[in-house]
Design brief:
The complex is a heterodimer. Chain A is built from 13 helices and no strands. Chain A is mostly helical. The longest helix of chain A is centred in the N-terminal third of the chain and has 33 residues, at 55-87. Chain B is built from ten helices and 20 strands. In chain B, strands 6-7-8-3-9-10 form a six-stranded mixed β-sheet, with helices on both faces. Chain B has a five-stranded antiparallel β-sheet with strand order 13-12-11-14-20. The chains are: A mainly alpha, B alpha+beta. The interface between A and B is medium-sized, with 17 and 22 residues.
Amino acid sequence: MLPTRSRTDAAVDRFDWLSVAFLLGAVLLCYYLVPLFSLVAAQPPGAVLDRLRTPVVVSAATTSLTAALASAAVATAFGLPLAYWLARTDGRVETLVTAVVLLPLVLPPIVSGMVLLTVVGPGTLLGGLAAAGGVSLTRSFAGVVLAQTFVASPFVVVTAKAAFEGVDRSLEYASRSLGKSRLATFRRVTLPLAWPGILAGITLAFARAIGEFGATIMLAYYPRTMPVQIWVSFTTLGLENAFPVAVILVGVAVATLIVLDALGTNPLE
Amino acid sequence: MLELTALSKSYAGFEFGPVDLAVGSEVLSVLGPSGSGKTTLLSLIAGTVRPDAGSISLDGRPLDGRSVEERRTGLVFQDGALFPHMTARENVAYGATDPGRVEELAALLEIADLLDRRPPTLSGGERQRVALARTLAADPDALLLDEPLSSLDAPIRRRLRGELRSLFASLDVPVVYVTHDQRTATAVGDRLAVFRDGVVEQVGSPSAVLDRPESRFVARFTGNENLFEATVARRSGGATAVRIGEVALRTTDDDVADGDAVTACIHPSRVRLRDPDDPGAGDPADRAAPHGDNTLPGTVGHWLNEGTEYRVAVDVEGAPLTLTATVRPPTFERLAIDPGTEVRIVVPPASVHLIRGPSG
């Protein structure tokens, strides 16, 4: 016979460690939420609305939204194939390529901007060629999209890769053994099953793009995006003037979390 | 006709092949322990894995270098691999050559009332029926099944086994059925191929493989524990005997020379136990055998209830030899078997099979 022991431990009964863990965590939670509420509360709704109607803010919001949509689209167009390839490739190459994909995530955004300038900046081969064709890759909408795509696209690749990996390979083999091509299999089996995860990745990329500052300010000070506008307002007119635009960005961030939650596959959880 | 010629594939730490097999319009059961290459065999035929060497042809059409979708080899997976975002109907219709096939197969496989349900709401047995219907709807030229019953409960597995047997008989294509379960393999297969370490150890009819295993491995894997190192002791007038230690057993297996070292192999289902005080008892068939039955006095060591039968270990009197016999419940009760019960062991000479070489 195995010796029997009481399941209740006196010390555990006296001290509820789970509550202690939560109390410690609650300090951090307050640290997140209090500044956010104070920012929103400090802004009279009227002042925010007034400021929202000024041309610079409208222009910045328009630039940010359209550029972030474009960046998310570019990231999806190139990121999904890469994600699928990574999900269906094993070995060292996969590890290496995944590391490269993660690079923009760990690189300080301002350094990403510097790196990009050495390739697409004025005076570079690519920048020169584009300028000759009438497209400026810096100080332009294209520059904003380039900067945003660089820092935001890894979210699409990493999240979609996980979503593709979640689709059992035997489902693809089953489809193909039923006479369907790889493309038909991808379209009818893999993509529908991975879709919620892919959409979550696109949403994250969009959120990251819309908040992008470091790389954007290096590559495209104009046209101003919302983060750049906040910085400009703050440095020229003071913190108070920067607040209303910040409130918009907080709104976008909260909306992102709601979308991710609705998709049911929050990759950050 | 599905033909595999010198097919081989090597992985890190595992060598498959070379394997030569030909499967006509029949069911070939592929039996082997996990890691013996059964699934690799199916993957090579289906095209999900490329061989290093060798070739595969189906109805004379070479499959080498062809993609999975071009092969027309229907694959049924262990868990069914149904598309979870489609209803059972959409699954079956997915690769159907003709939309009418869906209803026809639904009726055949008794899944008509499940067609509007999604796979997660189906039971294991229902999922396998749908998976089978889906594969058959695509009208494959060969059917490959990878342990489709292994995750099912015993009663459903037994029932489906019987149904599969008759379903396969109605198909006019080669069927390769992979399993690690000997009962399923013998129940559904016209022929049985036993795999070990990536190669075919023995292939033949289920009864031939079970009764006349060519190696100790095959014997053991098909449920035979009675394997004894023996020496061919005497040959005179067509009657051969082998000596297992002190015990001599007559056998009809006579393709051996005097003095040969062999492994005597007696399937537990062929060992009969009798009441020691009932010397006249015995099957009329036994008495009609060309050589008299081997009879040995013994004492029951221990027994195990395996549900439909008992597995009884009997120590042969005066010899360090223990024979295992499977006993049906009526016999078990009649003999009042328990440790210490004295019995008479009856082994027909035809059931003493000799494997050449003492080990292997």
